[in-house]
Amino acid sequence: MENVSKFNRKKIIEYFKIAAELTIFLVAIFFIHKELKKYNLHDLKSSIEAIPFWAITLIIFFVCLDYLILTCFDVLAFKNENYSLPRKNISFVSFISFAFANSIGLSGLTASGLRLNLYSLLGVPYKTIMNVVIFCYTTFWLGLLWIGGVFLTLLPISLVQIKLPIKLPMDTTVPIGIILLIGATIFTGVIIKKHKNTNTILINRILIALADWVSLSFVLYFALPPHNRIDFFHFLAIFIIAQILGFLSNVPGGIGVFDLIFLTLLGGAYSSDKIIGALLVYRIAYFFIPLLVAFTIFTIYHLFIRKDNTKITEMEKIVFSQFPNFLSIIITLSGIILIFSGFFPFPSSLITKIEVVFPFLNLETSHFIGAAIGTTLLFLAYYIEKRFELAYFISLFFLGCSIVLSIVKEFHLFFTIFLTLSFIGTIPTKDYFYRKNSFFSEKPSFKKLSTIILVILIGVYLGIFSYKETEFFSKISWSFSNTLLGIFFAFAILIILNVISEKRKSSVEEKNTETLPEENSPTDKDLRNCISLSSTTDAYLSLLGDKEIIFDDSKNSFIMFGKSGHSFVAMGDPVGDEKTFGSCIWKFYNHCKANKKETVFYEINKNYLNYYLDVGLSFLKIGEFAQVHLENFTLDGSDAKPLRHAFNRVEKEGYTFEVIPVEKVPEILDDLESISNEWLQDKNAKEKGFSLGKFTKEYLLNFPVGVIKKDNKILAFGNILETNNKEEISLDLMRYRNEAVHGTMDYFFICVINYGKENGFKKFNLGMAPLAGIEDNTASFWNKIERAIFSHGEHFYNFKGLRSFKDKFNPQWEPRYIAYSGPFNLPNILKDVTLLISGGIRGLISKK
Question: What does pTM read for this prediction?
Answer without folding.
Answer: 0.74
